[in-house]
Amino acid sequence: MAASELILLAMDESQILRLMERALRAVDYEVAIVHDMGGLEKVLDESSPALLLIGETFHGENGIEIAKKQLDRFPTLPILLYAEKDTTGTAKAIVSAGLSGYLYPPLKTDDLVDSVKRSLARARHLGDWIRREVRKTTSSLERRAEISEAEKSRLETIIANIEDGVIVLDEQKNTLMMNRVARSAFSLDELDITGKPVVDVISNTDFQALMTKADDGGVKYYELNFDDGRVFNAQHTPIPGIGSAITMQDISYLKRLDQMKNDFVHTVSHDLRSPLTAVLGYAELVERVGPLNEQQTEFVHRIQGSVQNITALVNDLLDLGRLEAGFDTRRETVQIENVLQYSLGLLDALVRQKNIHLTQEIARNIPPLRANPIRIRQMIDNLIGNAIKYTPEEGEIRISLQTEDRQIIFQISDNGPGIPLAEQNLIFDKFYRATNVAESSRGTGLGLAIVKSIVDAHHGRVWVESKLNQGASFFVVLPALAPQENQ
Ligand code: ATP
Ligand code: MG
User: Fold this and answer.
1) Predicted TM-score (pTM) above 0.85
2) What's the number of CA atoms in the CB half-sphere (13 Å) around residue 319?
3) Range of 440's domain?
4) Residues with CB under 6 A from ligand 1
């Protein structure tokens, strides 16, 4: 037992008080005596006594009430009451006030010391228990905090060192974090951007467009071009409860590879053209320089047919190369329905040959386009050509031309074999031919790639809607010329 524990006696002056003092000092307790409330509070506040012993009446006030108040302030302080006499009433009041016990006359010093010791022991016990519990809770909280701190910093390290750009935004599109790669891509190196609206921080026009489109629930993937020639593929992903994340992969090397491939194809196609012209020319001359037998004539015709096919392919490839390189800059005011009629006139023979029922629905007053008329014809030719090619004999083709919100909508629908859903986004790729028709029909798979390049070059959109075996509908939307631009 700690001999230096301080016992506070709050009692009016009396012989009993002095007896208590002596008895406690005799067993090595320190004793402080107070006779009024001021003294009591002072010692309690400044000296933290180990136990308070208070008279039933203290300085004219009710000792139990005073004890109760002190327990509110010091809930673990053991308090004993010295009652004037032992009554059940007093005992009850003491229990309900939560005191540790009480003493009453005739007071024996042993009883006093015993009570004090017991109360102190119980208080120590309670104190120990509370401390243990607090320690347990604190250490488990600390552990948890340590874990989440460790996880957080691990996550931060991973994101910071990832070779892809990562930007995390809150629901209002304010920047929550941006890793090294993203920062350096947008040249934001050391700038403090946390909490700022991302569209204020990043001025890249492609990025701004991505944010606008992401808002409309549109694109997920978007190409970001940078002035230094780098190209990133950005992906926008909403994160419930946080906001959204944008990840960016540097695809510059893929773009360079694609460019090299295109250049190669372009060069080869170009170099093939002259020998092909020569082959075709001589094949035509063969017939003129002397009589051929029937078989020789057939062979020569086959040579001519094949060379024409290769020439068409080479021309398509060269066209695509020019379109993709952005060389197609010729722009005139074009009335699309005139181009359509011209195309239909040329393809009429094929339509008749297959007994196809072709209907047209052309709205009146279609506004003009600012376009290259040759390209527009090429686009229409390819779409109508496909419809004729893939629609069976006696089939149906419907063509419509409408305007809506200063956009021209060209639609061509047929009741042919349609396109499998999974392949619908592939048919605009170069050389792609859908599996359901690849065997039964001929083609190189370049037509729609040309259509797409032309539509892109004219700031339009093209897409297909189709159900397998129920036909296909191709849509092209092109911006009409604004009235004031109309010359
Ligand atoms: P070509 O280069 O000679 O035009 P192609 O017609 O095969 O060859 P695209 O015009 O690019 O190539 O068309 C790509 C693919 O899209 C076609 O092979 C076909 O599978 C599908 N397709 C296009 N139009 C239709 C259509 N109207 N109905 C069904 N499938 C179509
Ligand atoms: Mg085609």
Assistant:
1) no
2) 21
3) 332-486
4) 382, 386-387, 390, 414, 416-419, 427, 432-434, 437, 443-449, 472
